[in-house]
Each structure stands twice: as structure tokens, then as C-alpha cells.
Amino acid sequence: MSKYEIVSLIASSLAILISIATYLKSNSIAMGNLELAIRERLSTSKTVLQNSIQQMIPLLSKKETEGLNPAETMQFEAFEGIYKSSIEDNLNAYEEACAKYLDKKVDRKRFKKIYKAEIKQLVENESHTNHFHPTTSRFKAILKVYNKWENLEG
């Protein structure tokens, strides 16, 4: 092998190593950006949900104690619709996050560390049982992640 071929081989090998390092670095940055976007989406959906609950509390309290007049009933029904929509949006945000976890598009160890308690609480919350029926649920990724983490046999 000539000196020219050796130098060419070394240069090519170095180029490959640099390409691999660049790919890994860009992949790591993209994963970090995705994780940040997931966190932001979940945080926003929780804030909207909390705000809708706060709007309903005074009317809910009045409804249970003294009853609502027709205008208050309409207002309560509107807030109730916003609340239900907020729950759906929050569950959709978790569904997307869990789908990214299952697709290995996020750091799986960090994801589990951050979201395990939240997902467990979400699935086990009695007010969400209709959302997490094993055969009819639209939130399959959440259930799959929950079962993976909580099913000690599998």
C-alpha cells in the first residue's frame, strides 16, 4: 500500500468518525428538544385544566348548596364543556408523550423517572376509568407504558 493510499485511508476513516460524532450530537440535541416540547405541552395542558376547574368551583359550590338560576346553569354547562375538553387535551398530551417513549424518540430512563408517578396517578384516578378501559380506550400508548412499568410479571 502506498503512502498516498494510507493517508487517504486515514483521512476517510477520520471523516467517517467525525460524521458519526456529528450525527450522535445532532440526534442528542433533537431528543433534548423533543423532551422539552413534551414537557411544555404537558405543562400547558395542565394549566388550562387547572384554570377550567377554578372557573367551575364557585358555580359547582352554588349548584350543590342553593341551586343555579338559568343564566348560571348555562355558564356552568359552558365551563363543564371547557373542563371536559381540557381533560381530553391533557390526556392527548400524555398519549403523544407515551407514544414518543414507545418509539424510543426520548431518553427512556429519564422519561420513566420524570413521568412514572404522573402516569400511574392518571391511569389509576377513579374519575378517568372511562378513559382507560383496556379494550375501548383511545389512549393505548398511555396504557401500554403504564402496563410496562406497573406489571411486575412482564
Q: Give the overall shape.
A: elongated
Number of strands: 0
pLDDT < 50 runs, ≥5 residues? none
Task: Output the radius of gyration.
Answer: 25 Å
Report helical residue fraction. Answer: over 70%
Beta-strand percent range:
under 5%
Number of helices: 4
Q: How widely separated are the two ends?
A: 55 Å
The run of helices and strands is HHHH
Query: What structural category do the secondary elements indicate?
Result: mainly alpha
Short structural summary:
This protein is an all-alpha fold and about 150 residues long. It is built from four helices and no strands.
Explain how this protein is built.
With 154 residues, the chain is mainly alpha-helical. Helix content is 81%, strand content 0%. The longest helix has 63 residues, at 3-65. The radius of gyration is 25 Å and the shape is elongated. 10% of the residues are buried.
What is the strand and helix layout of this fold?
Elements: H1 3-65, H2 70-102, H3 108-124, H4 140-150
List keywords for this structure.
about 150 residues, mainly alpha
